[in-house]
Amino acid sequence: DDLIGPPLLIHSERANLWTRWFAINNVDPGALVPAMLRLEQITMIIEAALAELGAALLPRALIARELEARDLIIIKGRPLLVNDGFHFVYATHKKSYAPLLAFRNWLLGLK
What we know:
- This protein is an alpha/beta fold.
- The chain has helices at 17-24, 42-50, 64-68, 98-108, and strands at residues 8-11, 36-39, 55-56.
- The two termini are 30 Å apart.
């Protein structure tokens, strides 16, 4: 019921995420007929969700602050596990840079 009405915010590089989310949550996407808004950047999708332009599927790590502040809420249902396309990379000459190591360790702790 929560998705009937709001547009679906779609990351253009990962257009199948909603289809996958509907499938694992036994939701018939054909029964909803919501509008869709395709955006190129995840940051644009976050801003659109904050502006109440629609519902989005986003990595929890990127919206932790917004969730904690209750600016965004998690839609009921099973989370979609996505394990493709994102890699933590940095310049070789920065491999001992303390802030980078602290950030890396923080990311690894999000598992």
